Amino acid sequence: MAGTSAPSVTPTVGNLLPLLGKSDTKPTWCPGCGDFSVVAAVEMAVKRLKIPSHDTVIVSGIGCSSNLPHFLSSYGFHGIHGRALPIAEGIRWANHGLTVIATGGDGDGFGIGAGHFVHTMRRNVDLTYVTMDNQIYGLTTGQASPTSMMGHKTKSTPTGVIENPIHPLALALASGATYVARAFSGDVKQMADLIAGGIQHKGFAFIDALSPCVTYNKINTFDWFRQRVYKLESAGHDPSDIGQAWLRAIEWGDKVPTGLFYKVDKPTYEDLEEVLSAGPLVGQPTGMKGREALLDEFI
């Protein structure tokens, strides 16, 4: 578990609760990494919504991006490769009074974690998932990832990638995500707006953050994206129209859209699960003699 527990002292001035802030652990990312923008945007979004830090849990898997929970003063869980979403689901179901945010990268989320990605979306679990998508495996020093473009020469593909890249937004739409968005690390304000909207949304919210790796990806750079990104709202996009969302989700090349692709209100897993209707599981009686007696049975 990441060492990011919430402050233990509650301010008394104005009866304010402690809000999310930076932790004492400093980011270890390469200078200029797009992930700095993502951690700033997450902090801005949670602060804007005035969610107390002790009511916030940030979960991650493995990768450069997955260090993010260490750098904020919420509760955090640094899990294993590709397993951020099932951990986040478990936390959400144990205490669905918490705001749960999962973070990770394109390798963690769309490679080894792809199965969890699909099934968490089809359940419409009420949590927010932010991926730092840099089209490369950065932590392991530059291999091709599931979102690397065709022809990209990397350590693992010295003659160029020969596999079609995954379209994360199209996969999200096909799998039942009810809030689908894309952000760019070159626009922190837009990213914070999209993350805040995802947190407020009741259902599975997916924000794919284009977060350039300045060390190992010399193709999908900040300049590459700045020449291509445009905002959906400026193009008159209707996020309630899934047909439009599909067309925008597969648009990639000379133009790369950012913003809110799709949003719809549907019952969440928590709404439909009868056991959770009585409130968070942590507050429900165990029906046993007590926690100590329950533990004794397993010792």
* Strand arrangement, major sheet: 2-1-3-4-6-5-8-7
Question: What's the mean pLDDT score?
Answer: 91
Strand content: 15-25%
Q: Could you spell the SSE succession in H and E letters?
A: HEEHEHHEHEHEHEHEHH
How does CATH name the architecture? Answer: 3-Layer(aba) Sandwich
CATH class: Alpha Beta
Number of domains: 1
Please work out how many helical segments DSSP would assign: 10
Helix fraction by DSSP (H/I, runs of at least 4): 25-40%
Structure description:
29% of the residues lie in helices and 15% in strands. With 299 residues, the chain is of the alpha/beta class. The chain has a single domain, classed as Rossmann fold, CATH 3.40.50. An eight-stranded mixed sheet has the order 2-1-3-4-6-5-8-7, with helices on both faces. Helix 5 (168-175) packs antiparallel against helix 8 (242-249).
